[in-house]
Amino acid sequence: MADRYSFSLTTFSPSGKLVQIEYALNAVSQGVTSVGIKATNGVVIATEKKSASSLVDDASVEKVAMISPNIGMVYSGMGPDFRVLVAKARKAVQAYKRVYMEEPPVRILVQEVAGVMQEYTQSGGVRPFGVSLMIIGHDDVSGPSLYQVDPSGAYFAWKASAIGKNMINAKTFLEKRYNEDMELEDAVHTAILTLKEGFEGQMTENSLEIGIIGESTVGVYGGERKTMPLFRKLSPAEVRDYLANIA
What we know:
By secondary structure, this protein is α+β, with helices and mostly antiparallel strands.
């Protein structure tokens, strides 16, 4: 019976499910693991960065993307789908900035991206995005924030979360290790340790991608020279230092 509904995105099955969304979540669970942790003074996202071949130039593989100076995003699932969402998110940032003359709060950007993903669950001739996202940022309204957005368009704020292939084990590990007094430095260590739990092979600075934002990343931005926490990716040398500390 389920097969009658599995090819239609816009038709509910008798059990009340949109089966294509469940298939999209299966695509996410086949992607590499990504982790996000909110600390008292910042937020971190980290993911495995695996190339299909040793001949691929690692510098061309990007899984953590900056959306605006105060917001960053990582994904698990299908890379090309993520690229489309990054472009749409950056356009949404510019549209907000043109009207309000400031960077958007994290929640506003998350709502925009989730709205796009939800639209692709009830339109004919399209399929859901095969990615789950983790979006982090810092704003004057909420301070440091971590959100997860799923293919259905559902989004939630998290203290710590994981998506991708090793999601269940990673979340179990985070539940044991996370505490609300954790600072950004500890959060980065915990994120690396969480990924290490299910990592296959040798973990190096080239097999991880980490993005952070918080009080330690404050910088001056824009023509008005506003001082604010800025999102940035850790360099391979910085990742190597973190790996050396937890070895």
